[in-house]
């Protein structure tokens, strides 16, 4: 009889975990690189599915933080999901994901992000697309010709300075990662060689940065952040000064970025790329921390279907105060006798959807009215309108990868 165990890896099992990753994702590491990775990656962040003591499948869940409507939220980053071929299509990954959700909830991680090999696969487990980004390719002849905004540029290796600018920029989007010094070094400076330069405005205040590389006559902008339009223009003037070294610029931007509108000739190459997926780990806990739009008191009912996290599968009574803070009670499905007491004799607005739809909605990627029109959100037009007015409008974006 097979002995099956789902548990966190031990330190001595991390080498086997890396061996599985190299096989599944088709890359090779030297012994020195293996040692370097073992310094960064901790065994307690990796869950393994073991059969008779052998690692058959595995999944990493990294403790991270993100921003949601300006609020910092704990997030579980799912990555390195892999199975040896002789064990595939036996439901192991699904079991790992469900155990991972339990662990994330225990750790207070309210949402989870992942980069999917297949959107349809992870949708079955409640993750949903939450971000698209734009890629630009601009020939040097089409670079913006902005007037000099004043200020100056300085190259730098000061991570603390770069991170201050980054956080002031990132908080304006839903879904950006909080970075620490190790993240800057490992995921930017070491993995993407380049030069960092900071824009200082006319008052000498740092207001933007760009991290870029020029190679084979092409400039790749790895990372850019700016706190106002003056800084945006200063950064682009700096990039344009490299025109003798390059033929084109390639970069990534938020999906609502207005750069083409600002160009003399907006006929540039643009591509919209579906990117990461998000999932709510704990509906009740997230709603209680969620910053709703302030206004009149609202009483709402939210029915959620979640086949992989029983604590989310139910009806939630949501009361939002004038400041936009919610108190939430979970009710059992089919047991809504307390609804009248909750509503206080007044009218209570009710909508229903799956956990993936709710994730896209609360992340800000899809609005309630659009989801209702698409048949993904059930409820009357009036009920949906209450939710539409209660959720802040904010673009989703993610400048990183994990």
Structure summary:
With 402 residues, the chain is of the alpha+beta class.
List the defining traits of the structure above.
alpha+beta, 402 residues, globular, Aminopeptidase, seven-stranded mixed sheet, single chain, Nonspecific Lipid-transfer Protein, Chain A, 3 domains
**Main pleated sheet:** 7 strands, mixed
User: How large a portion of the residues is in β-strands, by DSSP E?
Assistant: 25-35%
Please identify the top-level CATH class of the largest domain: Alpha Beta
> Might you state the CATH topology name of the largest domain?
Aminopeptidase
- Identify the CATH homologous superfamily of the largest domain: Gcn5-related N-acetyltransferase (GNAT)
Low-confidence stretches: 336-346
Count up the helices. 13
CATH architecture title of the largest domain:
3-Layer(aba) Sandwich
Assign an overall shape.
globular
- Overall number of strands: 18
Global structural class: alpha+beta
Radius of gyration: 24 Å
- How many domains, in number, for the residues? 3
């Amino acid at each position: 009889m097979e002995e099956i165990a789902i548990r966190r890896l031990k330190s001595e099992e991390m080498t086997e975990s890396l061996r599985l990753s190299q096989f599944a994702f088709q890359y090779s590491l030297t012994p020195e690189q293996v040692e370097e990775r073992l310094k960064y990656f901790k065994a307690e962040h990796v869950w393994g599915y073991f059969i008779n003591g052998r690692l058959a499948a595995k999944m990493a869940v990294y403790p991270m933080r993100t921003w949601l409507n300006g609020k910092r939220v704990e997030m579980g980053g799912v990555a390195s999901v892999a199975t040896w071929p002789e064990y595939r299509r036996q439901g192991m990954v699904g079991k790992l994901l469900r155990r991972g959700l339990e662990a994330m909830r225990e750790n207070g991680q309210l949402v989870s992000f992942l980069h999917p090999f297949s959107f349809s696969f992870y949708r079955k487990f409640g993750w949903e697309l939450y971000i698209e980004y734009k890629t630009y390719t601009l020939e040097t002849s089409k670079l913006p010709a902005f007037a000099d905004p004043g200020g100056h540029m300085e190259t730098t290796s000061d991570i603390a300075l770069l991170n201050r600018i980054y956080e002031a920029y990132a908080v304006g989007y839903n879904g950006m990662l909080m970075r620490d010094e190790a993240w800057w070094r490992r995921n930017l400076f070491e993995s993407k060689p380049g030069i960092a330069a900071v824009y200082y405005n006319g008052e000498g205040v740092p207001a933007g940065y760009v991290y870029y590389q020029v190679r084979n006559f092409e400039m790749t902008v790895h990372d850019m952040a700016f706190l106002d339009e003056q800084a945006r223009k200063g950064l682009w003037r700096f990039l344009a000064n490299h025109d003798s070294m390059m033929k084109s610029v390639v970069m990534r931007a938020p999906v609502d970025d207005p750069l083409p509108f600002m160009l003399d000739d907006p006929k540039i190459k643009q591509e919209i790329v579906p990117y990461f997926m998000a999932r709510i780990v704990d509906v009740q806990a997230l709603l209680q921390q969620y910053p709703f739009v302030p206004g009149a008191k609202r009483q709402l009912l939210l029915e959620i279907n979640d086949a992989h996290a029983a604590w989310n599968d139910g009806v939630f009574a949501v009361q939002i105060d004038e400041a936009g803070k919610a108190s939430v009670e979970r009710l059992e499905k089919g047991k809504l006798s307390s609804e009248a007491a909750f509503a206080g004799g007044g009218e209570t607005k009710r909508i229903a959807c799956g956990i993936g739809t709710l994730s896209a909605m609360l992340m800000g990627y899809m609005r309630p009215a659009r989801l209702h029109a698409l048949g993904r959100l059930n409820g009357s037009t009036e009920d949906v309108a209450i939710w539409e007015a209660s959720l802040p409008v904010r673009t989703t974006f993610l400048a990183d990868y994990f």
